[in-house]
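Internal ticket #5521
Category: modeling
Description: The requester needs a full-assembly model to guide mutagenesis choices. All entity lines are attached below as received. Residue total reported by intake: 1525.
Assigned to: D.W.
Attached entities:
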Amino acid sequence: MIVRPVPRFWELFYVLQGSILPQIALPLLSLGIWAALVVLCAGWMPGAFPTAAVSTFSFFGIALSIFLGFRNSASYDRWWEGRRQFGALVLEARSLARECQVWFAPTQKERADRMLGRILLFPYALTHQLRGDSFPQSVLSELTAVERGGLAATPDPASALLQMLSEDLAGAVREGSLPAAMHQSFEIHVSALAGIQAACERLRHTPLPYPYLLLLHRTVYFFCLLLPLALATPLGWLTPLVTIVVAYTFLGLEALSDELVEPFGSAAHDLPLLAIARGIEISVRQLRGDREIPQPMEPEHYRLM
Amino acid sequence: MIVRPVPRFWELFYVLQGSILPQIALPLLSLGIWAALVVLCAGWMPGAFPTAAVSTFSFFGIALSIFLGFRNSASYDRWWEGRRQFGALVLEARSLARECQVWFAPTQKERADRMLGRILLFPYALTHQLRGDSFPQSVLSELTAVERGGLAATPDPASALLQMLSEDLAGAVREGSLPAAMHQSFEIHVSALAGIQAACERLRHTPLPYPYLLLLHRTVYFFCLLLPLALATPLGWLTPLVTIVVAYTFLGLEALSDELVEPFGSAAHDLPLLAIARGIEISVRQLRGDREIPQPMEPEHYRLM
Amino acid sequence: MIVRPVPRFWELFYVLQGSILPQIALPLLSLGIWAALVVLCAGWMPGAFPTAAVSTFSFFGIALSIFLGFRNSASYDRWWEGRRQFGALVLEARSLARECQVWFAPTQKERADRMLGRILLFPYALTHQLRGDSFPQSVLSELTAVERGGLAATPDPASALLQMLSEDLAGAVREGSLPAAMHQSFEIHVSALAGIQAACERLRHTPLPYPYLLLLHRTVYFFCLLLPLALATPLGWLTPLVTIVVAYTFLGLEALSDELVEPFGSAAHDLPLLAIARGIEISVRQLRGDREIPQPMEPEHYRLM
Amino acid sequence: MIVRPVPRFWELFYVLQGSILPQIALPLLSLGIWAALVVLCAGWMPGAFPTAAVSTFSFFGIALSIFLGFRNSASYDRWWEGRRQFGALVLEARSLARECQVWFAPTQKERADRMLGRILLFPYALTHQLRGDSFPQSVLSELTAVERGGLAATPDPASALLQMLSEDLAGAVREGSLPAAMHQSFEIHVSALAGIQAACERLRHTPLPYPYLLLLHRTVYFFCLLLPLALATPLGWLTPLVTIVVAYTFLGLEALSDELVEPFGSAAHDLPLLAIARGIEISVRQLRGDREIPQPMEPEHYRLM
Amino acid sequence: MIVRPVPRFWELFYVLQGSILPQIALPLLSLGIWAALVVLCAGWMPGAFPTAAVSTFSFFGIALSIFLGFRNSASYDRWWEGRRQFGALVLEARSLARECQVWFAPTQKERADRMLGRILLFPYALTHQLRGDSFPQSVLSELTAVERGGLAATPDPASALLQMLSEDLAGAVREGSLPAAMHQSFEIHVSALAGIQAACERLRHTPLPYPYLLLLHRTVYFFCLLLPLALATPLGWLTPLVTIVVAYTFLGLEALSDELVEPFGSAAHDLPLLAIARGIEISVRQLRGDREIPQPMEPEHYRLM
C-alpha cells in the first residue's frame, strides 16, 4: 500500500511514484499518436470525419462513465472489505490473546504462552495462504517440532492453528480450569478468526465476473480509439491533448480498479498484510511479556508490504 | 464460474471464451444489418431522417444507462450475496466440524465421526435443492441405510440433516457428555447453517420483479432499433459500427445481468457450488483423519462447476 | 408475485401479463394523442415551438432519471427488505420448531406439539396483521378454545402467540425440564420472531416520505407533457412514437416503484405472504410428524399470493 | 409524518397539504419574475445573452443533479435510520416487557409491574431528550415520588430508567429469583435499548457536514439564477415556465432533504415519535393487564406527531 | 466539527465561517484571472478557440461528476463510520459502566469505582492514539501511580486499559463475586470497546487508495484549466463567472472530501473527539456519584473540538 501525504498543488503535475500513470503510459502515448494522425488526415481530407458526432460520443462516454462507476465501486468495496477483514483480524487476535492471558496466565502460564504463540502465528499463516509469503523463522519457534511438521504438511495451516486453539480450550474445560459457562467467551473469538479466514478466501478465490472485465475493457478501448474521429474536426490540434486527458481518466480508473479488485495481491496499492501481521505479533508479545519484540515494518519508498 | 487471468491488451480483441459475446452475436448482427439499411435509405432519400435527433437519443440513452446501472447493481448484489452465503457455508461447516471433533473425538469417537459425516453431506444437500445436482455416492455412505431412506423421501434433505445434528447435540446434553452451558456454542453453528439455507432459498425462489426485466429489455431494444435513425444523417457509414459498439455495451450488460441474477444456476458465470461442496468435504475429512480424501475440482476450459 | 421465465426475444413485444403496461396504458395513449396534436400545430404554425429546446429537455430528463433512480432504489430496497424479513421468518420458525421438537419431543411430547402449533400459527397471524388475510380454519385448531378467544380479542395476535411461547419456555425452566443455561438458545429465536414482526410493521406503517411521491409524480408528468413541444420541430412525426417510448420508461418505472414500495400489499408484484406461511406450515407439520399435510400453494396465471 | 394515500392523477395538480410546495413558493415566484425580466431584456437587446450557453448549463445541471442525488440519499438514509431505531425501540421494549412479565409475574407480581412501568416510560424519556416533549402525567405515576424526583433532576432520564432496570435484574439474580445463566437473556434487551438511545443521540447531534449544505444551497441558487440567461434566447416566453419547473424540482428536493436530515424534529415529514411511544405504552399495558388503556394517536390533517 | 443552524436565504451569500470557501479561494481567484485572459485572447484572435468544444467538455464534466460523486460517497462513508464508532463508544462505555456499578457497587464499592475509572479513561486514551491529544490531568488520577507509569510506557494505552478491565472481571469470577455464567455479559462490552478501537485505527491508518486522490485532483484541475478555452467563444465575458461557479462546486467538493476522508483529524469538519470523551466522563462520574463533575464542552466560534 502506498502511504503518502496528500500532494500539494504544484506536486500534482509531476508526482509519479504512487501514481497509476506509469502503468498506462504506453497506451496513452499510442492514443496520442493515433489522435495526431487522425487530425492530419482531417486536414488533408476535409469532410472525411463527421462534425456532428460529438453528441453521440458524449452520450456513449457518459454511459461508459456510469458503468465504470459501477465497476469502480465494486472494486473499491472488495478492497475495503479486505481491509475490514484484516482490521477484524487485529481485533479478534488481540481480544483472544487478552482473554487467554488474563484467564490462564496467573495459574497456567504455560498454557497461556502456548495459546498466545498460536495466536501470533495465525496472521502469518493467513498471509501465507493468501499471498504465498513464507513464515518468518522467529515465529515458527512458537510451535513444537511435531506441530511444525503438521503445519508444513497441511495445505491449510491457518485452520490447523485454530484447531489447536480449540483443543486447548476444550482441554481446559475438561480438566476444570475453565468453567463451561465461560467457554463461549473464548470460542466466539476462535470462530471469528475462522470467519475472517473464510471471508478472505472468498475474496481471493472469487474474482469479479469475468465478462465485466472484458466488456468494459473492450468498450473503453473502442471509445478511446473512436474519440479522435469525432473530435478532429471541431477541436483541431487540441484533439491529441483532450484525447490523452480523457483516456488518462478512463484507463487510469480501469487500471486502478484492476489492482483494487484483488486486495491481497502484491501490487503497489494492495493491502500491507505483512505489516499488519507484524503489528499483531508485537501486541501479542507485549501482552505475554516477551523480552525480544520486533520493530513495526516501515514503508520503503512510501510503500508498505 | 469462469476463472481466467486478466486479458492482455491484444487479447482484448479476440478472446471469446468467457465473453458474453456469443450470447448476443445474433441480435448484434441483425442490428448492424438494420443500421446499414437505414444508412442506404438515408442516402436515397436525404431529409427522411431528422438531423437534430441525436440530442434526444443522447438523453434517452443516458436515462437508460442510469436504469441499467441500477439493474446491474441489483443483479450483482444478488450474485455476491449468493457467493457470501456459500462463503459462510464454508465457515460454519468448518467451525462446527472443528468444535465437534475437538470436543467429542477424544471420548466419543463414534459420535464425532457421525456428526462430521452429516456436516460434509450438508453442502451437497443444499446444492441438490438449489440446482438439482445429485448426491455423490461416496458421500451418501456417511449415513445409515435408514437415514439414507429418510433423506431420499423428504423434499428438504438439508433440513433433515440439520435436525439429525440437533438431535445428536440434544442427546449429548441429556446423557451428560456436553455441559448445558456449552450447548449454545454448538447450536449457534447449526442455526447459522439453517440461516444460510434460508438465504439461498430466498435468492433462488425470489427473482427480480418481473416488470424490471420486461421494461428494460423492451426499452433497450427499442433504443437500439431507433438509434440508427438518429445517427444515419450525421455519421453516415460509421453508423453500423457505432450502433454495434453501443448495442454490444447495452445488450452485453443486459445479458450478463440475466446470468448473475440467478447465482445458483448452471450458466457459465454462476457460482461453482460443487467445487465449494467438494472443498468442504476435503476439510472435514482431513479433520476427521479419513484415509481417502478426494481431490479438489479443477476448472475445465476455465470453467468451474 | 409474478413467477415467469425470462421472455424470449420475440415475446418481448406482446407479453402483457406481468407487465406494468396495462396500468399506464391510459396516460400513454393520452400523451401520444397530445404529442400528435403538438406536431399538427407545429405544422400549421412553423416557428411556434423553439428548436433549440431539446438540449434543455435533455438536461432536465437526465436530472429526472437520477432522481427516479434514487426513488427506484429506495422502493426496491423496501421490497427486498420485506422479502428478507419473510426469509428470516422461514428460518427462525423452522429453527425454533427444530429445537423444540428435538429437545421436548422425547420426554414431553405434548409440550412440543403445543409449541410447534403456536409456531406454525405465527406466520398466518403476521400475514393477517399486515394484509388483513383471515386465519385458515385448519390452523386455528392448534389452539384451545380459550386461547382462540384471546387471539380473536386482541388487535395484535402475533405478539400474543410469542407470549404463549415465552410462557411455555419459562414454565419448562421453572419445572426443571429445560436447563436455565439453555434457555437463551430458545429465547433467541422468539426474540428474532418479534424482531421480524417489528420490522414488517415498520415497513407497513412508514411509507416513503409523501413529498418524494408528489414531487416526482408531478415533475415526471410535467416533463412528459412538455416533451412534445421540444421534439415537434426537429423530429416531426416521429414525435408521438418517441414521446410514448420515453413516457413508457418513466411512467413504467414510477408505477412499478409504487407497487414495490408497499411489499406487503396484494398488488401483482407484492410478496407471496400466504405461500410462505403455507410453506412454514408444511415444514413444521412434517417435523412434528402430522399425518395430514397441506399442499404448497401454486401460482395462478403466473401469480402467487 | 404525513400519512396519505397515493394521489390520483388529477389530484397531482392541486394537492398542497403534505407537499413541499408552500415552503418554496416564495423563491419559486421570485425566480419566475426574474426569468420574465430576463426574457424582456433579451427582447430589448437581442444578442445580449449567449445562444450556445444551454449546453454548458446542461452539463452543470447534470453535475448538480448528481451531487444533489448524493445529498438526497444521505438525508434519506438518516431519516430511515431514525425510523429503524424507533422500530427497534418497539421491538426491544416489547420483548423485554414480554420476558419480564412471563418470568416474574407468576411469582413476583410487584417486581414485574415495576419493571414494565419503567419500560413504558423509556420511549417518552427518549422522545423528551430528542425533541423536548414533556412526559404525560399519567405515565409518570409509574414511578415512586423519589424516583420521579431523580428523573426530573438528571439531564439524561432515559439512562436513569435503564439503570433502574439493570438494578432490578441484578437484585433478582442476587436474591435467587433469576438464575445467573438467564441474566443475559434480559440484559441483552437493556443493552439494546441503550444502543437505540445512543444511535438516536448520534443522529440528533451530528448534522451532515455543514459545507455540504452551504455548497449545495449556494450552487443550486446560482444555477437557478443563471438558468434564465441561458434559456431566454432559445426558449423565449417558455423560459419562466421551464425555470419554475426546474427550480421546483431542485429546490423542492433540497427543502425535503433539509427536513429529512433531522428525523427527530417536528417538521411535517419528521417521525411520529409520540405516536410510537403511545403504541408501546398500549402494548405494555395490555401485557400487564391494566384496566385503563389509552387510545392510539390519530393523524390530524393527515399528520401524525 | 462545525455546529451551526441551516443558513437563511440571504446568509447564503456571505457566510464564510464553516464554509469551505477560504481553503479554495486562491485557486478560484487564479482560475478567474486565467479565464479572463483567455477571453481577452479570444477577443484578439477570433477563431483561435474551437466553438464546438462545449459538447466535449460537457461530456467530460459529467464523467468527472460521476467519479467525484463516487469519491465523495467513499469519503462521507468514512466520516460517518468514524462517527458511528464514536457513537458506539458512548454506548458501550455507558453500558459497561452501568453493569459494573449495578453489580459491584452494593458489595464491592472499591472494585466498581476502579473499573468505572478505567472506563472513563478509555475514550481519552483512544483520542490520544488517534489524534495525539494528551490526557487531562484530572482524569489520570483515576489510576494508581504504578498503572500511570505503565500507561505512559506503552505505545497502546487503550489496549492496556482494556486488559486491566479484563483482569478485574477475571479476578471477580475467580474469587466468586461474579458468577461465571454472567462473565460474558460484561466481557461482551470489553470486546466491543476493543472492536471500536480496531475500527478507528483501521480508518486512521488506511487512507483512500492514493491514486484516486491523485487521478481525481489532476483531472479536476485539468478540467478547470481547459474549461475557459471551450467557453470563451460562446459565453464571452460570462466565462470567468461561470468558470468560478463550476470550479467552486468541483474544487469545493474535492476539498471537503479531503477533510472528511480523515474523520479523526483536527480540521474544521472533523469529529469532536474530545467533546465526546468529556460527555462519557460526565455520564460515568454521575453514575458513580462523584461530587465534582466537569461541564460539557462548548463550541467556540461554532466549532467543537
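Resolution: model delivered.
Comment from assignee: Chain B touches chain C through 59 residues (CB under 8 Å).
Ticket closed.
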